[in-house]
Every structure is written in C-alpha cells, then in structure tokens.
Design a protein that fits this description.
With 94 residues, this protein is an alpha+beta fold. The protein is built from three helices and two strands, in the order βαβαα. It has a two-stranded parallel sheet with strand order 1-2. Strand 1, helix 1 and strand 2 form a beta-alpha-beta unit. The mean pLDDT is 88.
Length: 94
C-alpha cells in the first residue's frame, strides 16, 4: 500500500490477460504520490497504472524480442509509460 509510483504490467501468453494485474492494482497506493508527475492520479488512469496484454509473446519475449519488430509493442509501451511518468528528459538509447 506504500507503493505510490506508476506501475506498468505487461502480460504475455503465459498470463493470458491484462486483468491478471488487477490484484496488484488493488494492493498499491490508491493514487500517485504528491511529489510525482501526475500527482494524485488514481489507479484507474493509465498514467498511474497500465496493464497491457501481448498475446504473441511468452514469458521473457518482451525482454529479448527484437525491438525493431513491429509485432513487439513492448519497447514503445515502455517508452511511452516512462515519458508520462517522468519530468525532464528521457533519452532512449539502443
């Protein structure tokens, strides 16, 4: 309940659905901390809690799959989430 930072969950075929992260959503702080970008955002908003399902991947594919493969949405999802959750500059590097 003390975790007041944004959360990103990526479910693969092994998990089978993004809603599998609902139990985690219920266990973290109900809103983002006051010292964070999007302070006060509740967990029903994407900038506070995002769960996504990538059906064509298995358990470690999001970490090991080719980032340039259009079938791999994970790098783009992580970058978009990081940009929403931070202030200042975020510079992705290969």
């Amino acid at each position: 309940a003390e975790v007041d930072v944004p959360v990103l969950g990526i479910a693969t075929a092994l998990v089978g659905r993004a809603s599998a992260f609902d139990t985690i959503r219920a266990r973290v702080a109900p809103a983002l901390g006051a010292d964070l970008p999007n302070a006060g955002a509740t967990r029903d908003r994407e900038e506070a809690f995002r769960a996504t399902f990538v059906p064509r991947m298995t358990h470690i594919d999001p970490l090991t799959a080719d980032a340039d493969n259009p079938a791999n949405p994970v790098p783009g999802d992580v970058l978009a989430f990081a940009l929403r959750a931070t202030t200042g500059a975020v510079t992705p590097t290969p």
